[in-house]
Design a protein that fits this description.
Elements (H helix, E strand, L loop, with lengths): L7 E8 L3 E9 L2 E7 L11 E10 L10 E12 L4 H7 L1 E7 L4 E12 L2 E8 L10
Antiparallel strand pairs: 1-2, 1-5, 2-3, 3-4, 4-8, 5-6, 6-7, 7-8
The chain binds manganese (II) ion.
The site of manganese (II) ion has 5 residues, from strand 2.
């Protein structure tokens, strides 16, 4: 097998009715997406609510518009043995992000499903890219 390019990681800052940050990770040809109201934190103590939103097309990862700016972009890889789609289905996945603003390990942990809305927490892993006193 030849080297495959790493899957896309992008965060779009979205000035909608309320400002949020759309985290998108390429999985099986689409962008899995979460709306993160406060945006990501580099401090492992700051657990950030991440509301799962519908998949977007890969092309959307390039989109910028009047209310949308690409806040960060790069690639990611899964940490651990399970493939990304299985880890997501199980509600727990850790990834290593290689962006311009964000680097290092992040965990997405599903906390609950309310009506049809899946809520997750986005948590910085404790590694050399983490900030804070811990
Ligand atoms: Mn959005």
């Amino acid at each position: 097998m030849g080297a495959r390019p790493r899957p896309l990681y992008v965060i779009q800052k979205h000035q909608a009715t309320s400002l949020h940050y759309d985290l998108r990770l390429e999985v099986d040809g689409v962008l899995k997406s979460w709306a993160v109201p406060k945006g990501p934190s580099t401090d492992p103590r700051d657990k950030r609510l991440a509301i799962e939103v519908p998949d977007h097309s890969l092309a959307h990862g390039d989109y910028e518009g009047p209310n949308v700016e690409i806040w960060d972009r790069g690639t990611y890889r899964v940490l651990g043995d399970a493939p990304m789609n299985q880890a997501l289905a199980a509600g727990h996945v850790s990834v290593w992000i290689e962006g311009k603003r964000l680097r290092g390990g992040y965990t997405l942990q599903r906390t609950r499903v309310e009506r049809s809305q899946q809520q997750w927490l986005l948590i910085k892993r404790r590694d050399e890219e983490a900030t804070g006193d811990a």
